[in-house]
Amino acid sequence: MLSIQILQYEFLGPIPLSEWGPPMEKLVYLILSRNKDKFDMVYVGDCQKTDEKSFFTSHEQFKCWLQKSGSEQSLYLAIFPMFESSEEKRHNVIQKIIAQYKPPCNNDDISEPKPDYVVRVSDDSDKDSDDSDKDSDDSDKDSKELNKDE
């Protein structure tokens, strides 16, 4: 069986998506588009458990995969089994892969959660920087006073 290295993870495959059959459980999967001898990552997702033959063809991003690959024949699947893994662990792997490879059909997955996070961080850091400015002003005064004593 072929395998493909993505970051530090070794995925099994790729195999033509049309050859895949259930069951499938606790894994992260890649949808790849074959372009002559190379594969482009189109989507990364995870599966808790499925027995559905239509798991991929009925996926909400299936149309996007087809758009990016041109045809269902060009779609390939690679899997990274994570037995006994929590959903959180799988999502962690997915986020790392998205950050590195930015698969085009994962856009929705990244853009939604981030804005809140960024806003919160900038609010906190503003408060922190105000405080630290005050501190540094005080310490300047202290050092000037010391110099007067000398």
Automatic annotation (TrEMBL):
Superkingdom, taxonomy of origin: Archaea
Annotated Acidic residues bias: 125-140
Spans annotated as Disordered: 103-150
Biased composition (Basic and acidic residues): 111-124, 141-150
UniProt name for this protein: GIY-YIG domain-containing protein
Protein source organism: Candidatus Nitrosomarinus catalinensis
